[in-house]
Amino acid sequence: MSQSNLEKQEAKLKQLNRKIKEEKYKIEQRLGKQIISQANLEYTNLSNDQIKLLAKQFSEFLKEKTVDH
Hints:
By secondary structure, the protein is mainly alpha-helical.
């Protein structure tokens, strides 16, 4: 393979990785927004520590539900 082809493939791979990261970010944002909305939480009242605690509790809840099935 020529250097040019490798460079083109590398550029495509970088672009694809960037798109994957962007999609993951969008999903994370929508998920967080829905959780906050459904729980009737106020953005202004959430500290970083509270967010971490809620995420941990949510994660543990999901793990328990997965084990139950």
